[in-house]
Amino acid sequence: MHLIDTTHGLGGYLRYECEWGYTATTAAGEGVRILDLPIARRPPELTEIDHDFWLIDDEQVVRMHYAADATFVGGELMAAETVPSYRAAREVAWTIAEEFTSWWAAHPQYHRAHHHVA
Fold it and tell me: What's the pTM value of the predicted model, to 2 decimals?
């Protein structure tokens, strides 16, 4: 699942991820959902956890860390007692997020054909 806020448009990497990654993986059967909500409108479960994470086998959480330029710098294994909060965030996000293919079809302004580099 990808949580995005398109208040300021879709950045280059996310556009690439959508067009070259998600379109192919959803066609192959992967479940990808997009939660396109400004931070101010997100449920509390999604504002308390304000960072990327992986939930592995529903039992371990790895928090992702990035440099100021968005370069991935590493992951941090979170304490076991935090897992329920991450599970709750995942469940809320999955429930209210939109399936990728319908979201992508509704937003042609983000497609390569409509994108112009200034």
Answer: 0.73
